[in-house]
Specification:
Two copies of one chain form a homodimer. With 218 residues, chain A is mostly helical. Chain A contains ten helices and no strands. In chain A, α4 crosses α5. Chain A binds a DNA duplex (30 and 30 nucleotides) through α2 and α3.
Chain lengths: 218, 218
DNA sequence: ATATCGCTGGAACGTCGTTCCAGAAGCAAG
DNA sequence: CTTGCTTCTGGAACGACGTTCCAGCGATAT
């Protein structure tokens, strides 16, 4: 039995909590068993007693973060608003912990992702989609969310140490604006919107676009 | 000047080509400078003369694969079909080289991704989207594509060594089918479609869903 | 012939994930 | 209190990786 799970005793939860903190402020490369050992004032072997390996630790950290998303309850709104609420919950979690963007794809069978798909699916059902298209529509929403998550993760990776979001975005917009208008008319004209857009709003527009696709395919 | 770029001479192209081959049949972990050295019958230092580091090598490999996608020309079809053609080109490239799924997010400023966004953007423009929404609509399509790419990459990762796609899909469907119908009504009812769906068709349905959202928001 | 330059191959370094193990800390039985 | 057993700890050690370093090769220019 557990001898002492109190003060200084190591536990799976304490390890996962520390891992999340390290991931949050140092990115994926900052999570090291050595650094984790130091932070928890213990050795690598002690950590391996509670956690099988790094992959499992990352999965556990992802689950812990997603658990918060699932705590929200979008009671008696319209299905459309319910989907928006779930999606925004995901977005905010990803925004706060960008590293989960690289993890979300792999654990489709794990409980958290399944619960999220279930919730979205129920709302898609409530939107009146024919039975045989519900699965595809739900997957589309989920894939879009994963795509945005992945981009957020990549952006956060490019940001470690160096520049902030605004600076990075500005540099990108500058590149777009300096392109040959004959070859890149679209990127040129979109450079402005690219430079000062709100990620959250852009995300929501995407969700709405898919939702209205679902609405018209009803 | 290059002394001998012929038969056995090392070159950036030969390195990238070998890297793609190794990534294709061994996944991301199979690409090692040591294994690459062995395959090219040379040393690590020789490779580093042509390539700055692993990140650049991965980026170059991704660019090389995407270059093929950009070779296609969707001449005088409808904008809708043009988007479908571009998206399917991406899907097939991702399907053939699943590892690019983990790379696509990061290089938004690099030429290949920019060209793809440009092409999609032009078609979105042709669909009659109001100027101020074109950028968001294009991003939505691109994010969806990246999301599917990421999932493909994760699935391929889970597949190395072990089971094939059908086996993995079947296992997942079995899990869904065995869930508590009270708690997971949607996943239960979708287990069948999950078990025997066609990834490509599912992808195309997603694209169409977004396109019809774009059409109705016109 | 000699010096120079582009390029090569492999040794070496530091870091990582992971394994291994001696032993500390708690508990049960005598 | 002692003895044995189980649970858990800390740190040493291992193999593989990305990367750096450098002695030296062949071809060319002087």
């Amino acid at each position: 039995m557990a001898t002492r799970t109190g003060q200084d005793g190591l536990s799976r939860d304490r390890i996962v909590e520390a891992a999340i903190a390290m991931l949050d402020d140092g990115g994926e490369n900052a999570l090291t068993f050595r650094a984790l050992s130091t932070r928890l004032k213990t050795g690598a072997g002690a950590i391996y007693w509670h956690v099988a390996n790094k992959e499992e630790l990352l999965a556990a950290a992802t689950q812990a973060v997603l658990a918060d998303v699932l705590r929200g309850d979008e009671g008696d709104t319209t299905p459309r608003d319910a989907v928006r609420a779930i999606a925004l919950g995901m977005f905010d979690a990803i925004d706060h912990h960008p590293w989960i963007g690289g993890q979300l794809g792999g654990l489709a069978s794990r409980s958290a992702s399944m619960r999220i798909i279930e919730r979205i699916g129920q709302q898609v059902q409530a939107l009146g989609m024919p039975q045989e298209h519900q699965f595809f529509a739900t997957s589309t929403l989920f894939s879009f969310i994963l795509g945005v998550a992945g981009q957020n993760a990549a952006n956060a990776r490019a940001r470690v140490g160096g520049r902030g979001r605004a600076e990075l975005l500005g540099a990108e917009a500058a590149i777009w604006a300096s392109l040959d208008p004959a070859e890149f008319p679209f990127l040129r004209s979109a450079a402005g919107q690219m430079g000062d857009h709100d990620d959250r709003e852009q995300f929501l527009v995407g969700i709405d676009l898919i939702l209205s696709g679902i609405g018209s395919a009803r």
